């Protein structure tokens, strides 16, 4: 029997809570003019979960949407690759989702590299599935409620005002000759590891936990000027470099790229990225009605791009993301049915 050497995306599911915070709401909360929120930040609206709605619950709903009529008992792996801000501190979200969707035979674990986890998880899961013949079906789930952690009065965190709530799930199948996962590239730069965090939670501040100032309950930038001084000169080049590496490792050239599914980014940066690869907005999907939903962004872009006819069969697509810390990652995909 020939060894199966492909892993493809069988389906993508999403879930977004119905409540909306539009650009006018963000403007009122932050004091930033609405036109700036809509044009410069690129946000028409974001989705906001209710206080009772958990990260795992949204992940379960996205997973069920991805599975459709697929029997969850056939799943071999359920992997959570979303936000580290979950239902509880030190909580196994993967196991919760595995149980809730009825994947009784599946193992479960988690992958965390902040917002690049979804992109890099494609490499990890593909490698596992090709090396272990007992793994035929895997489900990757990303969910985020990081909107809870945004302080709209903190001007230093304004680049995080695009955070929205929601989830995405990707069903992978070994031997599937459709929507093939190709190669992946990552760049890591640990100089930025301490720049962004929720400083009041964790072992470094455990002794002062009960006296935590209110501001330390939110995501904070420790020194915005210093971070920007080091990050701005390299981040665009790192995005383009991981795309180039992933594509060339997959046996293609940059001119072959037909679709880019990026993490949410400002329209000006996205336009520059598309131009770098001789593409236009017809070769991507703007996330201006979802905002930044952590590592779910790229999967939302794939699903919506395919639905709108922007992502076509035969396209070489690239999902690309960055996670604070800092990591940049890209995975190439061959969309549609392959020979």
Q: What would you call the structural class? A: alpha/beta
Categorize the overall geometry: globular
For the termini, the CA-CA separation is: 19 Å
Q: Number of helical runs?
A: 8
Major sheet: size, sense and barrel closure? 5 strands, mixed
Give the name of the CATH architecture of the largest domain: 3-Layer(aba) Sandwich
Strand content: 15-25%
Q: Tell how many strands the DSSP assignment holds.
A: 13
- List the strand order in the largest sheet: 1-7-6-4-5
In a few lines, what is going on in this structure?
The protein has helices spanning 23-30, 34-40, 55-67, 93-100, 117-131, 224-249, 267-276, 297-307; strands at residues 7-15, 20-22, 45-47, 77-80, 107-110, 137-144, 166-174, 178-188, 196-197, 220-221, 257-262, 316-323, 327-337. The chain has 339 residues and is of the alpha/beta class. The protein has a 5-stranded mixed β-sheet, with helices on both faces.
Report on the structure:
Strand 4, helix 4 and strand 5 form a beta-alpha-beta unit. The chain has a 5-stranded mixed β-sheet with strand order 1-7-6-4-5, with helices on both faces. Strands 8-13-12-11 form a 4-stranded mixed β-sheet. Strands 2-3 form a two-stranded antiparallel sheet. It is globular, with a radius of gyration of 19 Å. The protein is of the alpha/beta class and 339 residues long. The protein is 29% helix and 24% strand. It has 2 domains: 172 residues, 3-Layer(aba) Sandwich (Peroxisomal Thiolase, Chain A, domain 1), CATH 3.40.47; 156 residues, Thiolase/Chalcone synthase (Peroxisomal Thiolase, Chain A, domain 1, 3-Layer(aba) Sandwich), CATH 3.40.47.10. It is built from 8 helices and 13 strands.
């Amino acid at each position: 029997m020939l060894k199966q050497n492909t892993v493809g995306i069988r389906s993508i599911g999403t879930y977004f809570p119905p409540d909306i915070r539009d650009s006018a709401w963000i403007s009122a909360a932050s004091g930033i003019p609405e036109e700036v929120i809509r044009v410069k930040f690129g946000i028409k609206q974001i989705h906001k979960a209710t206080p009772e709605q958990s990260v795992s619950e949204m992940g379960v709903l996205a997973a069920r949407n991805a599975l459709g009529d697929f029997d969850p008992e056939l799943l071999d792996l359920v992997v959570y690759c979303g936000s580290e801000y979950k239902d509880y501190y030190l909580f196994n979200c993967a196991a919760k989702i595995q149980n809730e969707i009825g994947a009784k035979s599946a193992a479960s674990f988690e992958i965390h590299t902040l917002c690049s986890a979804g992109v890099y998880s494609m490499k990890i899961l593909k490698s596992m599935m090709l090396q272990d013949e007992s793994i035929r079906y895997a489900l990757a789930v990303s969910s985020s409620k990081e909107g809870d952690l945004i302080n709209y009065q903190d001007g230093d965190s304004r680049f995080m005002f695009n955070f929205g709530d929601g989830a995405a799930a990707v069903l992978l199948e070994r031997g599937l000759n459709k929507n093939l996962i190709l190669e992946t590239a990552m760049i890591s730069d640990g100089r930025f590891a301490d720049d962004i965090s929720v400083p009041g939670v964790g072992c470094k501040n455990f002794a002062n936990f009960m006296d935590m100032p209110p501001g330390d309950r939110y995501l904070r930038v420790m020194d915005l000027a210093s971070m920007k001084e080091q990050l701005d000169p390299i981040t665009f080049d790192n995005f383009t470099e991981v795309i180039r590496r992933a594509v060339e490792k997959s046996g293609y050239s940059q001119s072959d790229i037909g679709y880019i599914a990026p993490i949410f980014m400002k329209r000006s940066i996205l336009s520059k990225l598309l131009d770098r690869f001789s593409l236009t907005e017809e070769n991507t999907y703007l996330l201006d009605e979802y905002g930044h939903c952590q590592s779910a962004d790229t999967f939302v872009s794939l699903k919506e791009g395919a639905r709108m006819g922007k992502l076509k069969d035969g396209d070489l697509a690239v999902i690309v993301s960055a996670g604070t810390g800092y990591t940049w990652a890209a995975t190439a995909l061959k969309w549609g049915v392959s020979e």
